[in-house]
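<instruction>
Derive structure tokens from the sequence
<data>
Labelled lines for chain and fold:
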Amino acid sequence: MWKPRGVDRTSVILQQLRSDGTRITAARRALVTALVDADGHHVTADDLVETVHRSIPAVHRSTVYRTLEALEQAGVVEHVHLGHGRAVYHLSDDRHHHLVCERCGAVVEVPEAVVAPLREQLAVGYGFVVNGRHFALPGVCRACAALIPAD
């Protein structure tokens, strides 16, 4: 899926789902809208439940969870584990990876182009295909590294 510019992103995603044979329910529409409105921020399933409830209070929490799973299977949504916390979600057309500081919890988004050479090297040299969408690389951010005394 691509990231449309200058068009209604929600409509494009819903049209893609329709084209793939997915029925568009009010809950699905509300969830896609919530993800688009998150504007690249990583949101938890609970954040999305709250957002969907603001527009459609009758939607049950389990419906949001099932819909997230269905949207992930359809390739619209990805989840990632940023450290030891809950999984967070973002639209899959915003392809990036994550660096998570183990000291302060800061998250840095890294474009796919930065990780692509490593992905290629692992595939060619080791026959290993990396699925980097579901994890983050832990380490120490620049600010925290500056606080670590030199040996």
In short: The mean pLDDT is 87. Helices lie at 9-19, 26-37, 45-55, 61-73, 112-126, 142-147. The radius of gyration is 18 Å.
